[in-house]
User: Fold these one by one.
Assistant:
Number 1:
Amino acid sequence: MTEKKLTLNDLTLRKLKPTGERFFIADDSVQGLRARVSAQGEAVFVFSGRGADSRSVTVTLGRYPDLSLKAAREEALRQRLALKSGVDVNAKKRQLRETAKATAEVVTLEALVIEYEQKFAPSKKTWQPRGPKSTKGEARMAIERVFAGLLAKDVTKLTEEDFAKVTSSYKRVKSDGTKLTANGQVSRARAYLGPVLDWAAGRKGFAKLGASRVPRIAVANLEQVHDPALDDPTITGKRDRILTEVELRAIVPFLVWPAPDLGDLRIPPDQDFRPIAMRFTLLTAARLEEVCSMQWGHFDRQNKVWFKPSVKTTRGTARSQHLPLSDAAVDVLRSLPGWTTAGPRDLVFPNATGQGALGNWDRFQKKLDIASGTSGWHRHDLRRTAASIMHAMKVPASVIAQIMAHAEPLKHAGVGGATGHYIQLTRVLTNQRDPQEEALDKLAEALEQIASV
């Protein structure tokens, strides 16, 4: 585009006519201000200058005569000062363009949920596929089940009232006769969807630049939507269920590998590690998710110590744990095919594909309940049951807390948490066993006694 030697004034601008060519007219009064003239004879004021980083920047000021020459000169001077002070003068325009693009692009609730799933599934277990035959995680399935009627709608047009209407009127699709309401399902779906909407809007933990969706979009806030589980007396908070001796006696014989015949589970017995994983959970008082993520490289065979890279804690951030295992727990590991064939990164208790984590637990739990004649308990209750048995065996509460990773007793003494590295040395020099190992041995003996009665 050429620059014509014309004087930039109101007379010149009023006389502009279509010429079939595009050109600039520079202003003699304000350096960097020019009129950009189109082939049709229309003029637009632009300002070119250099920022604090010496980079050349061009800013579109406005169209003549909507923007007068006098106003264009004043705006050009303001832009020059802003550039010199390091202001990104085009940032607002970029944001407006992104907002316009996001507005023009219809994002449905379903598309947003899938987008979130693709981004966070690698780090969030509830968003990972539930099993070899499923492409969806628990979170997405819950959202799609409860909010099915909203999935195809533009998420930017859904209001808090729309979501509240669903949460207050949703009915269970299937009922097993034990649940009177769907409030538990609604509460879970609401809990899973809340972060999706916060991520899209850049709220809460996603407020920092780069943490949220790009571009951000204006969506409803589920904090304004009531959780129906809060008013449901049948839904309690913290579970305190433990299995009785009679229940354990009925259940433990089924916690073996290869898996017992519990009906149509569609997984060959030698590929189903769910029962034996539950037995290992009972023997170690570990969380089931810790057992399911255990790799063969995490087990120190010489010292019989299970290294957990990350365990939940009741206070503070996650930390690692070294847990000495009982002989019974080691025997479980030794009985598995991976003992001799698996690599360090292979899962100890894999799913049927041999690669992913165990899943489809609800289906298995129902079959186990029928086979054992028990009900009303959850697989996570095994951990609490193990702790209760150790307490009944007079194991000190501090040792139980250490096994369950509720506390790090040596923290205040300035001793590192990786003391498990020195367990073998302690045995050799002091001829003493780790209190955790002794406690877990007592647990194993008690379970064997219960099962044999």
Number 2:
Amino acid sequence: MKEPRRIIRKPLLTEKGAKQKAGENKYSFVVDRNANKMEIKAAVEELFGVNVEKVWTAVFPGKRVRLGVHVGTRPVWKRATVKLRQGDRIEIFEEV
């Protein structure tokens, strides 16, 4: 298994994520594209000391961007949303 800090890249702080955190106890992260749900679950449990009930993932394609005559693409990225057991919290989300 990969190192947990390589699987979980960063927390994803959005308005939708704030609503999910408050109402449904769900948290979102940007994760490694090659990580599967079991690896994500194990990484969150190890890094934050919580119990994960369910994991959802979504892969977002890189968008095409232009800067003058130059054309490129943004990188492909993967989002993981995890639902925690009732009563568990991740403290880094509470500070924001």
